[in-house]
Write a structure and sequence with these properties.
Elements (H helix, E strand, L loop, with lengths): L8 E3 L1 H11 L8 E9 L3 E9 L6 E6 L2 E6 L3 H4 L2 E8 L2 E7 L3 E4 L5 E4 L12
Parallel strand pairs: 1-6, 2-5
Antiparallel strand pairs: 2-3, 3-9, 4-5, 6-7, 8-9
Length: 126
C-alpha cells in the first residue's frame, strides 16, 4: 500500500531522474530506493541508501516523482521532511540528504545528530 504521507521524504527532479536511469533495466515492478538511518558516524547517525526489490512489512512506501521510496519505521521520525537530491560536481557525484531534523553534522557530510537524540560521536570514516 502506498503511504499517504509524502512529507516523510521527497525527491528532487534530479534524484528521481537518476533513480529512473539506475532502475530502467530492473525486472521487479516494485524496485525502489530504500532510505534509512543507522547509528554511527562522527555525529551519531548515518544515512544509508540502496535499491530494494520490494518493501518489507515494516516500511512506509512513498511515491516521489514517479519513484518508489521505502523507509523503515525506525527511520521515519529521523527523516521526516527530508529532501533527497542527486548532485554531480567536480568533487564527485551522489545522492545527498537535506534533513530538517539534523542540528549538526560532520565534515564527512554523511552523519548528523538531532536535537532530541545526540547519538554517540565516533571517529569520522568514509
Amino acid at each position: 500500500m502506498i503511504d499517504a504521507q509524502p512529507s516523510i521524504v521527497s525527491l528532487t527532479d534530479a534524484a528521481a531522474t537518476k533513480l529512473r536511469e539506475l532502475t530502467k533495466d530492473e525486472t521487479s515492478p516494485e524496485i525502489g530506493l530504500r532510505v534509512y538511518v543507522y547509528s554511527g558516524g562522527c555525529s551519531g547517525y548515518r544515512y544509508g541508501m540502496m535499491l530494494e526489490d520490494q518493501p518489507t512489512a515494516d516500511d512506509s512506501i512513498l511515491e516521489a516523482n514517479g519513484v518508489r521510496v521505502y523507509v523503515d519505521s525506525n527511520s521515519v521520525p529521523l527523516l521526516a521532511g527530508s529532501s533527497i537530491d542527486y548532485v554531480d560536481t567536480l568533487m564527485g557525484a551522489g545522492f545527498t540528504v537535506a534533513n530538517p531534523n539534523a542540528v549538526s553534522g560532520c565534515g564527512c557530510g554523511s552523519s548528523f545528530r538531532t536535537a532530541d537524540d545526540a547519538g554517540a560521536p565516533h571517529a569520522c570514516s568514509h
